[in-house]
Structure formats: C-alpha cells, structure tokens
Task: structure prediction
Amino acid sequence: MSIDFTQINNILIIRLSSLGDILLTTPLIRTLKKKYPHCKIDFLLKTEYSDLLKKNPNINKIIPYSKERIASFNDTITKSFNLRDYDLIIDLQNNLRSRRITSKLKIRTKRFKKYSLRKFLLVKMKINLMKNLPSIPVRYAETIGIDLEDAKVELYSDKEPNNKLVGLKNLVGICPGAKHFTKRYPIDYQIQLCKMLIEKNYNVVLFGGNIDKEICHKIISEVPQVINLQNNDDILQTISDMRLCEVIICNDSGLMHAASSLNKKLITIFGSTVKEFGFMPYNSDTIVLENENIRCRPCSHIGRSSCPKSHFKCMKEIKPETVFKIINSINA
Result:
C-alpha cells in the first residue's frame, strides 16, 4: 500500500550504524524534506555516530542510542524517545534490535529489504542475482515507494580546516584504513604510492579514525613527508580537511562515503567486496579500481580478517603504479 505523505507529519528513521550506512540515508532524507517540507524527521542511531547528522538541516531531532542504555531501552521506550505521535517509522536497519524497538511502538513501519539470500548466494556460490539491483540509497528510497531526486550524500561541518593544509597545492588525500583486512589496500603498496607522490611534488595527507591509528603510523614512519591527520573519530574535522584535497583515495569504507559528499575526484579500491552489494559512492565523481579477473571474489559482503585463499590477489594485483597513473591523469 502506498503512503500518502500529505497525511504524514512526524517520521522516525532508524539506522543505528555504521558510518557509511548512515551517510547513505542522507539522499533519502533530503528528498523527503524537499517533497514534503511539512514533515518532521527524527533519526535514531547509535550515540557514536551522532556527529554524522547533527548539522544536517533536514533532521528535526537526533535520538542517540547508547550501549549503556540498551538493556533498559525497550522497557522505557516511550520515555527514552520523548515521543511525539509518529505517523511513520522507516526501519533502514531491519535487524533483531530495530525490530524489538519498533514492536514496542505499535506504529506503521516500513522496513528496508536486505536481500540476504542473494548476498549469501553471491558470496558462497558465486551466483549473482544482485547485478541488476540499484544502489543502497535508491533501495532505501524504495522502502517507502519514492524516487530519489538529484540528491547526494551529505555531511555538514562548520569546522575550520587544519592549518597544516591551508595554502598547500597538489594535495592528495589518502584514507588508508578499513574495519576489515580484506578491504584494505596493502600497506606496503600504500607506502610505495606515497613515495611516488612525494617524489612528484604532491602533498599527501592521511585521514582516518581510531581504528586507523596503527596503519597511519606505519606509513609516516616510512614516508615522514606525509601529513598525518588521523584523529579520534572526529568526522566533522576530517570532512573539513578533505575539502582542501584535489583527489581522495579510499578503500571500501565509511570514509569513502564521507568523501563522496564532496565535489572531489574520488578513487576507490575494492578488494573482497563488489559493487553489486550496492555500497558504491553514490552520485559521485568516482573511479573504481577492482580486480575482476579472480573467481573467489567476493569472499564476504562486509570484509574478512584475512584472505581465505591466502593470496589476497583481489588487492595485490592492483599495483601502486596503476593508482599513481590515474592521479597523474586527473591532474594533467
């Protein structure tokens, strides 16, 4: 049954995590607000991701969901939400936790279709029934039966860029990390790439959060000319600093989606994951590098702690020279 949004005033969107998944909801949020400006949109997400939306002008209220409150959250749901009368819940998480939350609210709910069986078949049996599926932002919008208008991923920051970057030319940003090993471009390749860039008078800056501290430290220990702006998960500072880059290089990670919110050339390197999962940078000027010549890929839809075949060809056959040539062609 279609939704008559003229009769909808208050909407709750649920997407608890993670960085990239939450950012990919922003095209839907903008489209909803543009089509139906009378609607007030609240957003429930884990506390640690609140900065992603706190400056978003299309959000009425952020409702943080902290680990400390999980045990008692469902028992005190109405008090915790400080509920207005929601007319619609859009559950873009669609897992056991989000279902427990919505079951307490007794409000009309639309849930994101995850295509779990298709993902299983693609990863385990290499049967690809996902190649004709649209990207995740489009699928989010399909949850409530609307078409996305000309929207992009949005991440707003009012922070000033780091003084180390101000005035620098030929600035190349590198996001060297990712949560899972098989989604990270090999560190020795990243070190080689940094050396090539420095030798050709590029200024190179590293971006990352807490989980990227070790890999960033290893890079600057080998290439001390690189500027290390890895921080304590200050995403608003990171996005402000990224704005000064001419090119940004990312793995399939949350920072890839953050970078896609900028009008910058983006180079993304996919290893164990594939575009069919729908997590490509959305509506962004992006060059994708991936090894399409190996049959073991994808080995996971989220990434793994090690290569199950022990060769890691999905990444190792994408040489630093290839990435360097693309950067040169962009800046030619």
